[in-house]
Amino acid sequence: MPLEFLKRKGQPETGQATTAKPSASPLLPEEIVAQDHILKLYYAGKSSDGVRLKAGPAALAELPHMLTGLAQSPVEVVEPLPIEFSQATPTIVTPSEAMQWLNAHHVHSPITRHALVVLESIDAIDLAFDTFVCALLDGELDTSGYPEYNAVVGGVAAHWDEATGDMICRAVVGWGGKGVRGDTDRIGAKLLGNILSNILASQFALGLTPVERPVPAAGRGGLVCAHCGFASGHERAFYCPKCGMRLLRG
Ligand SMILES: [Zn+2]
Question: pLDDT tens for residues 68-124?
């Protein structure tokens, strides 16, 4: 009985479909065959508490040495971006922001560019105020020199404490791409600890401190550093993000 019912209901429908348009127009099949297209990108990272370092150019110069014994590639220093790059973002769908990003970072090595894409995408560093020293820490490079998805990159991110002018350093690591591997998280955590202990071993280290990130200015920003000429994106910055000297207000 239910079989007959189904048949009767189905027949006029198909009949209608075949007779309605005798032309060559294609029929919409009852079930559409869809091919799925998926790209799963996985970016992850870790950052440590901050370590307060006594302010001064000597502390800044020491940053690259904090990766001694850990870096598997030459250590690169990425300085905070001046105001004209304040919109720089590594996303190609926003061409103006992407162009700023490329103009700011095309000079860096593939390892550093990969690290910046990963760590900026997950908001682990912010080059509006961070100075970032970076290297490959674990894993392999592909034939073009870019880290594989399970390679760990990172180093030390430093910014100037607005209240005291001290330098606040934190360990930052990241990894990711078209794939995930189970043990990368554990390797990343171990490397984070190693970097943190290197930071604490600095002769300028004063101890652990919570990280309070400076808030970037919403508007036009800035002050121009009288010492190094760096144009800060921070209206309320007291210390130049680049050289750490006190900014003079006009
Ligand atoms: Zn400066």
Answer: 999 999 999 999 998 889 899 999 999 999 999 999 999 999 999 999 999 999 999
Task: Return the percent helix, strand and coil in the chain, to nearest 5.
Answer: 30, 20, 50
Kindly tell me the burial class for residue 193, based on how many C-beta atoms sit within 10 Å of its own C-beta (0-12, 13-18, 19 or more). Answer: middle
Question: For residues 138 and 152, is the Cβ–Cβ distance under 8 A?
Answer: yes
Largest CA distance in the chain: 92
With a cut of 50, say whether residue 129 has pLDDT above it. yes
Cα of 161 from ligand 1 centre, angstroms: 14
Asked if 140 contacts 152 with a C-beta cutoff of 8 angstroms, the reply is no
Assigned token pair, 199: 């930071």
Q: In angstroms, what is the span from residue 226 Cα to ligand 1's centroid?
A: 7
pTM of this structure: 0.80
CA of 199 to the centre of ligand 1 (A): 23
| Sheet strands (E) in the chain | 42-53, 76-78, 131-138, 152-160, 167-177, 205-209
59 CA to centre of ligand 1 in angstroms? 15
Predicted confidence at residue 97, as pLDDT, reads 95
Tokens of 160: 């100037």
Neighbours of 185 (CB within 10 A): 14
Buried b / exposed e over 40-61, threshold 16 CB at 10 Å, is eeebbbbbbebbbbebeeebbe
Task: Tell me what pLDDT residue 69 has.
Answer: 97
CA of 218 to the centre of ligand 1 (A): 21
